Amino acid sequence: MDKKLIVALDTDDGEEIDWITDILSKTVSWVKIGFQAFSTVGTDVFSWQNGRGFNTFLDLKFHDIPNTVARDVGSMTIHGANMINMHASGGMEMMQTARLKSESVAKERNIPKPILLGVTILTSIDEEGFQSQFGSKRQISEQVLYLANQAKEAGLDGVVASPLEIELIRKSCGDDFVILTPGIRPNWAESGDQKRITTPAEAIKRGADYIVVGRPIIEHDDPLEAVEEILDEMKGM
Questions:
Q1: Is the pTM of this model over 0.90?
Q2: Catalytic site residue 61?
């Protein structure tokens, strides 16, 4: 289960990142670097975390014209990101161009291609918010499934989606399609601004390949204890 848990280092405090990753280096395999951490550490984060034995999920949610996203994804591939995401709503051409660029630079430099994921609908958005803000005739689960199929057709490895949509995506996209789920809250943690959520155990039971947990770990008095409790919960699904 330690290979399924991704710890989100959602802080811009470099010393805190150093402290937390040092504590967790023998317990988990993945860390997530979002805008907060990346703004502080930059591309040095990849060699830094790799040196401690971590794989790095770069959570910058790229969303721009195809050439721009392809350039950025290619650059992050070269720097050593192990997993990269982009908004699936950026469109088929954007996702395909980014995937081809990542494959190309990985082959040229003889380095592993990162796992590429399409972000579907953010877990902070619920059904009511989706209908009022996006004006879609689809239900939120239908939109998530549509974007997941677009990501698969574009050749991405998988998607970022709430745990509530795992089974729909799995049925449509297959067992080899990677599903990463944020919106994970242990029983003892507050939900915060996350709305479409489940517990770690429930997400694993539904079929998540990876789960992302941030605040319940990094804001805990003892991050290692929090991780161990989450791992125990995942094992006891």
A1: yes
A2: yes
